[in-house]
Amino acid sequence: MNQTYWLRNVRPYGGVAEDFRIDAGRIAERRPASAAPVAKRDINGCQQLLTPVLVESHVHLDKTLFGQPWRPNSAGPTLKDYILNERRVLREIDAPIAARAGALLENCIARGSLRMRCHVDIDPEFGLHHVEAMQEVRERYRDLIDLQLVVFPQTGLISRPGTAGLMREALQMGVENVGGLDPCGIDNDPIAQLDFIFKLAVEFDRGIDIHLHDKGELGLWQIARIADYTERYQRQGRVMISHAYCLGMAPWAQVRPLAERLAAQGISLMSSAPADCAVPPFLELRAAGVNLCLGSDGIRDAWSPMGNGDMLERAFLLAFRFDLNKDEELAAAFEAATVNGARALGIDEVSVEVGQPADFLLMPVQTLGEAVVARPARQVYRAGNLIAEQGRLLESRL
Amino acid sequence: MNQTYWLRNVRPYGGVAEDFRIDAGRIAERRPASAAPVAKRDINGCQQLLTPVLVESHVHLDKTLFGQPWRPNSAGPTLKDYILNERRVLREIDAPIAARAGALLENCIARGSLRMRCHVDIDPEFGLHHVEAMQEVRERYRDLIDLQLVVFPQTGLISRPGTAGLMREALQMGVENVGGLDPCGIDNDPIAQLDFIFKLAVEFDRGIDIHLHDKGELGLWQIARIADYTERYQRQGRVMISHAYCLGMAPWAQVRPLAERLAAQGISLMSSAPADCAVPPFLELRAAGVNLCLGSDGIRDAWSPMGNGDMLERAFLLAFRFDLNKDEELAAAFEAATVNGARALGIDEVSVEVGQPADFLLMPVQTLGEAVVARPARQVYRAGNLIAEQGRLLESRL
């Protein structure tokens, strides 16, 4: 690829056609589309839609079975069955984390996710093995994707002796975020868990990301406590609550005051927009100023064989979940899979402004709404270079 | 294509590999896969999954904007707004029904739906224009897809003078099914509507397909009445209720007796498996012996820009809706998009048994579950001939 070239005739966000000058991996200039012939060293965008890259805000790469032979889900009915089943499945699988997570990561990159937050299990049983493996994976793909990690106490924190020490070690190794998990439902000691993770986050100056599956009033009460802790420990803009099904279980009149606290404290929400249960009410929260982003959660793992890592499809699923059919609503779903994710992850905004890294997508559709509905095959650019198209990395590293 | 050939090394439904002999457009023989080299006149299936074709049980081809430039949804908030908006949009569109419906139909065929039921609007304003156009479309694609029509009183039947006569005319023209629409919610005279459509169906010996959006107890009461009419007019196995959201709104203990009546009367249900509202409880109904099939409903029309006509994706959306993750559940979702549809439409079973038409799909996946999860590009065979792959008809007729 040329160090400097013009990307001609593209329509940013579906607007009028422009030409983009790419220089040294960044967007150096934008101008209205010129009618001049496209020079050989330049690229003709052919009136395609140009957008920022997608942001995968919540995924579990370390546990995926992606790229492995199909494996029927074998878990029993309870949450405990699923956790034990996962441990058994991962013990039985020969392929190392690097192979499985790498295969999935390449798939995610190929579909346009170039910013990502990945939760990584720790457990007294296998210690920091997953963290070490994921740090290697991150290094291997550092030039293609900005990947941040969350140390995630899947089997409990306060209730699982040995886990707290592992979390501290993971942060010392450079993991960017402190994870939490149902302070009530899993640990049965919410204040002890929140005390621990907020103090640890302050000590290491890291972000916080809490899985909250607890339902109804129990969930809502914990969201209020997380807002308390965010305020007390001055973690505004650094805290995410993942899933938060409970916000979709109560009338908006009850949820609204909580939404206002989330907005005031800059606490983001992450949803995978599931359709079998309540989910945070996207449009109402958005109107209240709450930043909601999207994640795939588990992909082809021992929890479920579902998922494909396509964040444009996740935006579609959000739209499907809430019957969004107006263009401005579909554009909001697209934002949830792009700018909202960047904001939640505490990273630079994903945009196509001059001065930004030349990371972007090209799609053969007319509008953002059509992109969300149609989820077309797309071209993925990183630092000005085409790295993937038709759902495939041009150069696999597997 | 050869009149007779062997399709070698395919795995029906994901089972062990077999060879299929195709003769004169039908499946003439099946045998365990031979190890012999593949002759030049034969086809190597390369261990792909072989399945029956997909069945689209509910679509509105006549109203689609498929293939037209992206059009933002412009409807107001109420149901009446949507109906009036659709009338306005369809008046404004230059492309005739044959072009729009044809484009969508080709897309559906290319994704593997070779059996289809299409609802067609009648209305005193435009009379039988849609029916005539759709009968032409059907003729044009008769060798590629088995398409049956339902005459559909979108703006009301009893409450809309002139509609009843149009319905009779449509049946005289050969439309296969009598349509109904919210006997309470739209017509405000349920007994008059049911009297009319059941008597008409008996007179012409046709099927019945009733859109039922009415919610809660109002919907459940109408389902009981439809069962009464089915029994009284001996229409067992000939009646479908489309949508029936109300069945997902009441506790199963209340729904079960109704489900037992549906099963006993051979009344099928159709769902598009939406995620923003209640839907009939798939697994419970299935266990109770109720035949539930899937449909796209509207695709890229004035009601919503969503939809793509891929019935394998619809099976995925059903699985997503109910968090199906076990292989037998995913296979049930596949059945909803295949055999259940054929049963509901009153047509020959779609299967790959000897003697059946050589209509089938080939997919590069391991199991039915993986097919539903991954929705891969597929090869579509009609009467033994490859007619589509990679989502495209080999020979467009547009």
In short:
Chain A has helices at residues 79-92, 97-110, 129-140, 163-172, 190-204, 216-232, 252-265, 282-287, 311-321, 327-336, 339-345, 368-374, and strands spanning 4-12, 18-23, 26-32, 43-51, 54-59, 113-121, 146-152, 177-181, 207-212, 239-243, 268-271, 292-294, 360-363, 379-382, 385-389, 392-393. Chain A has 398 residues and is of the alpha/beta class. The relative contact order of chain A is 0.16.
CATH architecture of the largest domain in chain A: Alpha-Beta Barrel
- The amount of helix of chain A comes to 25-40%
Report the CATH C-level class of the largest domain in chain A: Alpha Beta
Q: What is the arithmetic mean of pLDDT of chain A?
A: 96
Count of strand segments of chain A:
16
Percentage of residues in strands of chain A: 15-25%
Oligomer: homodimer
- How many helix segments of chain A? 12
Strand order of the largest sheet of chain A: 3-2-1-4-13-14-15-16
Helices and strands of chain A, in order, run as EEEEEHHEHEHEHEHEHEHEHHHEHEEE
- State the end-to-end CA separation of chain A: 23 Å
Q: What best-fitting shape of chain A do the alpha-carbon axes yield?
A: globular
User: CATH fold name of the largest domain in chain A, please?
Assistant: TIM Barrel
What is the count of structural domains of chain A? Answer: 2
User: CATH-wise, what's the superfamily of the largest domain in chain A?
Assistant: Metal-dependent hydrolases
Write the layout of secondary structure elements.
Two copies of one chain form a homodimer.
Chain A: E1 4-12, E2 18-23, E3 26-32, E4 43-51, E5 54-59, H1 79-92, H2 97-110, E6 113-121, H3 129-140, E7 146-152, H4 163-172, E8 177-181, H5 190-204, E9 207-212, H6 216-232, E10 239-243, H7 252-265, E11 268-271, H8 282-287, E12 292-294, H9 311-321, H10 327-336, H11 339-345, E13 360-363, H12 368-374, E14 379-382, E15 385-389, E16 392-393
Parallel strand pairs in A: 1-4, 5-6, 6-7, 7-8, 8-9, 9-10, 10-11, 11-12
Antiparallel strand pairs in A: 1-2, 2-3, 4-13, 13-14, 14-15, 15-16
Helix pairs in contact in A: 2-3, 5-6, 6-7, 9-10, 9-12, 10-12
